[in-house]
Design brief:
Helix content is 45%, strand content 12%. The chain has 19 helices and twelve strands. Helix 4 crosses helix 7 and helix 6 crosses helix 7. It is an alpha/beta fold. It has three domains: 141 residues, Orthogonal Bundle (Arc Repressor Mutant, subunit A), CATH 1.10.10.10; 76 residues, no CATH class; 173 residues, Vaccinia Virus protein VP39 (Rossmann fold). Strands 6-5-4-7-8-12-11 form a seven-stranded mixed β-sheet, with helices on both faces. It has a three-stranded antiparallel β-sheet with strand order 1-3-2. The protein has a two-stranded parallel ribbon with strand order 9-10. The mean pLDDT is 92. Pfam families: Dimerisation, Methyltransf_2. One of its GO terms (molecular function) is O-methyltransferase activity. InterPro entries: COMT-like, COMT_C, COMT_dimerisation, SAM-dependent_MTases_sf, WH-like_DNA-bd_sf, WH_DNA-bd_sf. Keywords: Methyltransferase, S-adenosyl-L-methionine, Transferase.
Amino acid sequence: MVQIISEDSGQISSLLGLIKEAATTLEAGYAKGPGGVPCLDDTAPHPLDRNISTPEMREATQVLEGACAQLCAVLARPNHTVLNNFFLTALQPSCLRIALEFNIPDILQHKPSGMHVAEISKICGVDASKLARILRLLTAKHCFREVEKDVFANNRLSVQLLTSNPLYSLGLHMTEDMTQAATKLAETLADAEWGPSVIPTHAAFNKFTSQPLAMFDFWAQTPAMHEHGERFGVAMIGWGTAVEAEAVVSAYHWHTLPPGATVCDLGGGVGALSMQLARAHPTLHIALQDLPERMVQAAQTVWPAACPEALAEGRVNFRAIDFFKEVPLAGCDVYYVGGLLKNILHAFQEAQCITILKGVRQAMKRGSRVLIHEYILQMAAAAASSSYSAQNKQLARAPAPLLSNYGAGRIRQYYLDVSLMVLINSKERTLEEYVALGEAAGLRFVRVWAFGDMSGVELCASEEGED
């Protein structure tokens, strides 16, 4: 055993300073807007909940979460932290699934002041004494509130689990498909053939389901599983909203593109991102490309209802595409590879990603840009975070003494990375890995962008000069 004595005797005061500064920034941000600072007991949406976070408030949230978690990890006994934060949290998905499966938040909406567990039990059919214990655990995590003994009510967090919220579908996916498949992760990694494999059907999901199809194919080709595929589509709407993926609409320099410039939304489904771009930047033209059935749905149903002005003005073009066999629409100004509802490249292995990007490179004109919108993994150690040091060519690093990657403040990307391993045997990537994929396809790295919780990697043709 090695004992390392920290040279930074002021670590605790530094973490406390970061916590105070971040909390003050968030409090001031709420105070400046309508509604003031929210109360945890509120069930009505706060006015700012519908807005994209300012960069200052987003950074403050990440610092606050990271610093609080790091402070507790430093000061609490290690066995206490391991027991509470790693071992016992394994029960959380199962308890949360009870709340989702039996629509507890919807039931509580009928009595905002609080409902006795006996009454909840009569409606949902779960034993009252056991349900109370499950709700009490969730209440201790600030999801629901216990007004008085055995009387529960919704709060600011639990109303996110209403069946009308897309996060409800995401919760069902995470607490069923994800949690159940993850129970086979150790067995999968120990398998001599499957452990080192990058084949999508060699995932923990396949170990759990005992069938040979990749997850999405299994859902599509098995009638009993169609509901899971439909649920996943709704879940991704909730995911995109929660991670503020639509920040790309305002954060990227779309406004510098000339009038009439074309953005090719490659793999954007029915065009959730494209519709926002079309509304926010009415001089842009949109080329939406995805599977044939998505293009029919987009052209005949979604856009006529949600963005008819773009159709009337001839600013959107729908073209079906097979990423691996066809080249995207030629001559577009920006090729956007990502999306609010589905990240493209993280679902595929390196060879497939290079095939997609080579097709894009073939379609580009001089001056075209490729914008990859994905999570970018950062390392916890500052020295290992990125080999790039120039401005706009590396991701932001957390202030010391936080982990360079913000630790718990940006934990979502690491959960997502492991979830891809569990479900489809894929992964999230580092900036260096995305740059390497681009270089293999004849593309050169230009810069990295911050898009809410996610990032953007901008590429150009490799023969173009430095900006």
